[in-house]
Each structure stands twice: as C-alpha cells, then as structure tokens.
Amino acid sequence: MLNMNILIQCTILIFLFNFSSCNKDAITCGSTFKLVNQQSGDRLHSHDVKYGSGSGQQSVTGTPNADDVNSYWQIRGDIKNDCERGAPIKCDTIIRLFHVTTRRNLHSHNYASPLSNNQEVSAYGEDGVGDEGDRWKVVCTTKNDYWLRADPIRLQHVATGKYLHLSGDTYGRPIHGQKEISCYSYANSQNLWKVDSGVYIHQSSEPLSSTRDDNSNTRSQSTKNDHFDDEL
C-alpha cells in the first residue's frame, strides 16, 4: 500500500510539473510580439497606408524587416468574452490581434485582396473597438493543449473559415518589397505562423479591456502598471 501511495504521489508531481512547464512556455493574453510566416520569414505588419481597392481600409502586409516597430501585435480576448491578462491561450481559443502602433485590429471580410484575389486582410476599428470580422481562432499544429512559443500555429478567420496567409505576391510603391497578406481557403505551409520577438506577461487579476476609457490618464496608467516578466 505504501509503494502504491508513493507511486500515486509521484504521478501527481510529474503531472503538475508538466502542466507548469507548459503554462510557462505558453503564449498568454496581453502578450505583445511579432508573428513570422514560417515559410517566407516575413513578419505580419501594418501601417497607416490604405488599400487603393477593395475595402479601402488600412493595409496589412508581410515585411522582411526584422526591426520594424510596426510589426507588433497584442493578443486580446474575444469580443464578448475578454481574456484574463497573463492567462495561457488554449488551442482553438478565439482571439483578436491588436496592432500596437495604429491601435486597430487584424480583420478580414469578403473583399478580394488586391494582388492574389484571395480574401482581403486589413486593420480595422478604433482603439481596438471593431466588429465580428476581428475574430480569429488559434489552430494548433501539435498535440499540445496550449499555444506554445516554439509551436507554429494557424489563425483561422471565424466569420469566413479561411486562414491568415502570405501569398508571396509583392507590392510596388508606396510599400515596395512588402508581401501581400490575405486569407486562403486551405491550410498549407504559407499560412503557418510562429512567435518572434516580443514580451510575455504573467497572469494577473485584471482583464484587458477592448473599450476606450474617457479618462485621459487610462492609457498611460495601464502601460505603467503592466508587468512584462519575460522576453520572447
């Protein structure tokens, strides 16, 4: 009986160790980072340049420039079910990606993309307030339960079922050399993404808010109080 109790205790400890290690390496709500296309090495990028066709909204592209500050995105929760800051993101979770520089959400809809004629991807909304087109499902490609830093994932657009995709087509002026980002119907190597440089936040008791606060000090106070515990 004693040996059996020891065996059970050891099994529990191993489980808790593995669970803790998994959570430590998991991408968390509120984390801010760059997403790299695994096939091309380009980073998911946006800027205050509008599409000349389609929706006319802010364009989203892929850039080979590793140092570009316009490639940072922050994970936020679903529209009606925001996530707790620092909570690990499970596979199949619905998230939004907030573009830090322009404060718009990664978005897609039923417009044709300008180069490949796939589905257009844009940055949309004001201060993170958008619509149903901002919702993306984290599709894991491994057997892990969580989105881990080392694991490639796909982002599936909830409203249309298509995948965030780098088509390989290249823009001319005014964004010469940047690649078209679109949504594509089928999963393939061009819609695999991995986390690159950024910051990882440990769990806290305050959820991230997607709504704008009328208090002008809210944004600076929130930034000051965020505790970035680890670099990716």
State the low-pLDDT regions, or none: 4-22, 205-232
Could you describe the largest sheet, including whether it forms a barrel?
Answer: 13 strands, antiparallel
Which series of helices and strands comes N to C?
A: HEEEEEEEEEEEEHE
- The CATH topology: Trefoil (Acidic Fibroblast Growth Factor, subunit A)
Helix/strand class: mainly beta
- How many beta strands in the DSSP annotation? 13
Separate helix tally:
2
Return the CATH architecture.
Trefoil
Mean pLDDT: 82
**N-C termini distance:** 46 Å
- The global form is globular
Rg, nearest Å: 19 Å
Strand content: 35-45%
Number of structural units classed as domains: 1
Estimate percent helicity.
10-25%
- The CATH class label is Mainly Beta
What can you see in these coordinates?
This protein has about 230 residues and is mostly beta strands. It has a single domain, classed as Trefoil (Acidic Fibroblast Growth Factor, subunit A) (Trefoil). Helix content is about 15%, strand content about 35%. It contains 2 helices and 13 strands; from the N terminus they run H-E-E-E-E-E-E-E-E-E-E-E-E-H-E. Strands 1, 2, 3, 4, 5, 6, 7, 8, 9, 10, 11, 12 and 13 form a 13-stranded antiparallel beta sheet that branches. The longest helix is centred in the N-terminal third of the chain and has 24 residues. The protein is globular and about 40 Å long. It starts with a helix and ends with a strand. The C terminus is likely disordered.
